[in-house]
Specification:
Elements (H helix, E strand, L loop, with lengths): L1 E3 L2 E3 L16 H21 L6 E5 L3 H11 L6 E6 L5 H16 L2
Parallel strand pairs: 3-4
Antiparallel strand pairs: 1-2
Length: 106
């Protein structure tokens, strides 16, 4: 979600669903990592023009995205990270706005 002074722009990037009970083998792991890398590339491409980034979500994905942004020398744009379960678009927008207000000292 892109949040501006005038509103929100929601961009959907279809994520990957990986069942926890799936058997782990090298071929499966390599295929999943390939898909995951494509997903992170799409996320990063979608936020390439962002002045600041807030990362919300469950599990390890937040850390992985942060690592990818660090490799691209973009970690300085991250102003917040928060563990969150499912959120409505309104909840996401409110959380992101709170981070921007705190970051900008308003």
């Amino acid at each position: 979600m892109v949040v501006t002074d005038t509103g929100e722009d929601i961009r959907l990037i279809k994520g990957l669903y990986e069942p926890q009970a799936a058997p782990a083998d090298d071929i499966h792991d390599r295929a999943f990592m390939g898909h995951l890398n494509i997903y992170y590339d799409e996320v990063i491409a979608g936020i390439r023009d962002a002045e600041a980034i807030v990362i919300l979500g469950p599990g390890e994905a937040k850390g992985e995205l942060t690592k990818r942004l660090e490799r691209d020398n973009r970690s300085g744009q991250i102003i917040g990270m928060e563990t969150a379960d499912k959120m409505t678009h309104r909840q996401i927008a409110a959380t992101v706005r709170r981070y921007f207000q705190d970051h900008n000292g308003r």
